[in-house]
Amino acid sequence: MMSIIMSARRREGLLHQTEGAMMLISLFMALFLIATLYYILGVGDAVIYRRIMQDGADAGAHAASVMGAKGMNLHALLNVVMAITAGILLVIRSVEVLLEIIIGVLYGLTATLVLAPKALSLIAVLSPVQSSVEAVGDAVEQFVKVAHHALDAAHHAVQHGYPLLAQARAVDAMAFQDAFDPPVAGGFVVPLLGPRLPKGGRGLPVEKDDIGTLCDWAADGLGNRLNSVSSKVPRWLLKFLGGGGTNKIRLGKRRTCADGVVESPRRVIESRADGTPVWLGHEEFQYRAYDIGRSAHDGHWQHGEKGIRIAQGGHDDGRTTTHGAHVVGRIGFAQSEYYFNGREDKSEWLWKQRWRARLRRFRISRAWIPSGIVSACSSTRGRGSVHGLAGLCDVARDFSINAVSAH
Fold first, then answer.
1. How high is the pLDDT of residue 259?
2. What pLDDT sits at residue 178?
3. Residue-wise over 360-386: b if at least 16 C-beta within 10 A, else e?
């Protein structure tokens, strides 16, 4: 009985015992602060991880568009070279045709008794000159043929090769630069081989133009040059060759632009295969970059990642539901485009080297949206009774991944 009483009194004393209480509270606070510190470090590492991933995607997308802009500028340069070589032949053929016209007029004057002696003497002087000009023209024509075949092959190589260079440059910028690796392990850009072309295949968004366009550019350029020449050459001859206003150097155009002499230049594609017009800002001039990061369990980020799991109540080798979403954070998105920096008409976009590159807000490709949804969205335009569906279409079309990925 006495032992029971003593045990009850001892338990009653424990209830009023306060020694060591602060130590217990401090222990819990210390554990809480350690867990909070781990969590803050983990969140900081996650933010840095995402920032580098986004920077890598931006670098890859911009690098791809820079290569696209360089390809379009190279197309413009090749067009100009084609016009210059065609212009040289055009001048020679124009002089040749002019001499033929003069000699023909002189032959007509030989029928008159008064002017026949002078006409015959001029014919004797101009005939060898005309033969020499014709021989030079034939030699230059052979050179132009070979040069234009090479330039046409260069156009084809640039159109289909530069998307591959864009892919390689983007992968290099994302995965092989010390600034982004780690954490970036790899990446790619789409479209992989450039946009789909109206006549099939993929490549830069250009197509063949008419041969007459090349000769018109050459004639217009040479005509403007002749009109501005100040030399001892008779002004009437320069004016006859160059003309004024819309009359340009076109005497030898038919011979210069004959089939097999010059090749067609290139122009920006007018429309897609379905007839939809193509303008700047469309997907034909854009790249989307995707980079993939290394696992957070490797390298510097494993400590912060481990701390987040512990703070969330997960085991060292376990995963929580919240932590399972970390896979999404290992993917970076970015979008860019190349564009013509000028106010000129679309027909002049591949005659001037003004193509540039820039980043754009990431948007889901229209080609990725099922055709049924696209048709439904198109049918809702202009109808006030389907505001909900129209709003859903806007979200589906304009949703920006960058809003989610700290951009």
1. 66
2. 82
3. bebbbeeeeeeeeeeeebeebeeeeee
Residue 227's CB is within 10 A of a number of other CB atoms, namely 16
Q: What is the pLDDT of residue 407?
A: 29
Query: 106 CB contacts (<8 Å, ≥6 apart)?
Result: 119, 120, 122, 123, 126
Q: Does the pLDDT value for residue 328 go beyond 90?
A: no
Q: Give the mean pLDDT of 142-149.
A: 94
**Rounded CA separation 139/208 (Å):** 27
Residue-averaged pLDDT of the chain: 78
Q: Can you say whether the dihedral through the CA atoms of 350, 354, 357, 362 is positive or negative?
A: negative
Which H or E element spans position 287?
Answer: strand 286-293
In the three-class reduction of DSSP (H, G, I as helix; E, B as strand; rest coil), residue 96 is classed as helix
Residue 129 burial by Cβ neighbours in a 10 Å radius (0-12, 13-18, 19+): middle
Give the bridge partners for 389, in sequence order.
none
Q: Compute φ and ψ for 322, nearest 5 degrees.
A: -65, -40
Higher pLDDT, 297 or 181: 181
Element (DSSP H or E) covering residue 334: strand 331-340
How many CB atoms sit inside 10 A of residue 131's CB? 12
Give the range among 165-174, 201-210, 239-248, 296-305 with minimum mean pLDDT.
Answer: 239-248
- Take residue 406 and report the two structure tokens written for it: 């700290």
